Amino acid sequence: WYIDYSYHHLISAIDRSLIRLQTDYVDLFQIHNPPRTEDDYVNIEKVFNEIKSEGKARYCGISIGTHYDKGIEIIKRGLVDSLQLYFSLIDPKPLKELLPLAKKNNVGIIIAEPLAQGFLTGKYKPGHKFDQNDVRLHTYPNELLQMKLERSQQFKFLQNNNRAANQAALSYILSREEVSTCIPGAKSIEQLRSNVGASQVKLTDNELKKIEEIQQNWHEGISRTG
Hints:
Blueprint: H1 7-21, E1 26-31, H2 38-53, E2 57-65, H3 68-76, E3 82-86, H4 98-104, E4 108-112, H5 136-139, H6 142-153, H7 165-175, E5 181-183, H8 189-197, H9 205-225
Parallel strand pairs: 1-2, 2-3, 3-4, 4-5
Helix pairs in contact: 1-2
């Protein structure tokens, strides 16, 4: 899978986007994979500086997925105004270094997959197995699948009559002061409305403390087993 980060391709990409969107500028121009080579970094920095100076984009960012070390390097290079990354109740790794560094450097954070692809909505139950024809069978080996299922079950206490599981998960993301926004998926109007309702949900200090304790136990467990 070849990703073209050449200067001319990136300039062409935003110019074509502006034509399709019928606008003179975008608020955020975002590259959807982290750079891999020093040439990539050089080209991206040149393009970001140029399109912002010309008013084609107000801000520029990079989507890093789970490449958190890359995100740290990108911030330290002063390359972006924002980063998009994966972070959720069951995937708290960015908390340790990346999110504090982003806050310190005034880098906005966009959280993708805050519902962990449905693991935090009650969609999957313990013991779930993907069908042989499901691509997720390869994305989630059984050991990883069961770990995510086990972790998600530990947050059932956040669900009650006033908030659904997805709303509790989104509220947790929005409670982090480092986070600018999150982008949950929705397959229906009902899911969309429920997700939007999360902005009115507030977790208590005790709930946030319990979440932190649960996540800390995972880190300790990983440390003990190497």
